[in-house]
Amino acid sequence: MIRSELIAKIAEENPHLYQRDVERIVNTVFEEVTDAMARGDRVELRGFGAFSVKKRDARIGRNPRTGETVHVEEKFVPFFKTGKLLRDRLNGK
Amino acid sequence: MGEKTVTRMDLSEAVFREVGLSRNESAQLVESMLEHMSDALVRGEQVKISSFGTFSVREKSARVGRNPKTGQEVPIQPRRVLTFRPSHLMKDRVAAGNRKD
Questions:
Q1: Do B30 and A29 touch (CB under 8 A)?
Q2: Is the Cβ–Cβ distance between A48 and A83 less than 8 Å?
Q3: Distance from CA of A13 to the nearest CA of B (A)
Q4: pTM of the predicted model, to two decimals?
């Protein structure tokens, strides 16, 4: 499933909405999740999962091609943990 | 760094502000998005949202696990797990937003 298929499904179920409004709705939701993580917030969607930001410490890395050592700065990365309900559903429970 | 927890309520509030539907209908639409995504994943489909990220289902085979506290061996059944791979755009925005200057 891709974004446009998700939009199409929701548009189909809501014939009273304009397609462009459904697009705005779907885009707003994904945008809000990304914005929240960019602020360092956590997004908890019970049953589906939780998005959070994890810190990766600074480390000494190595360029695998040249073997040269490089300093890798501390960084923050997005992380998703599957919710219990969805995890159970994936396993037929 | 923020420490707020954003919930369904905040997402539907954003939809309410953006599109001007009722709060109730906004909440239902958010719910319906999550349901369609979950259903696709349960069917074993990948959910690929451009400039957001990709959710995919991976099959894990059975293995022998160990209770780290007691050292006792426990069989772990084959199972399906969900992984999320953030898009480059999301990674960049999260890195930039949280960077300490």
A1: yes
A2: yes
A3: 9
A4: 0.91
Any bridge partners for residue B60, and if so which? B79
Size of interface A-B (CB pairs under 8 A): 162
Indicate the residue of B11, B36, B52 with minimum beta-carbon distance to A9. B36
Pairing of strands B5-6, A42-45: parallel
Structure-token match 């696990």, residue found: B65
**Nearest residue in B to A29, CA atom:** B11
Tokens of B46: 């990948």
ipTM of the complex: 0.91
Gap between the Cα atoms of A38 and B98, Å rounded: 6
Q: Give A4-54 pLDDT, tens digit per residue.
A: 999 999 999 999 999 999 999 999 999 999 999 999 999 999 999 999 999
Of A26, A37, A79, which is closest to B33 when you measure between CB atoms? A26
| Residue closest to A3 by CA, chosen among A71, A22, A37 | A22
User: What percent of chain B lies above the pLDDT cut of 90?
Assistant: 88
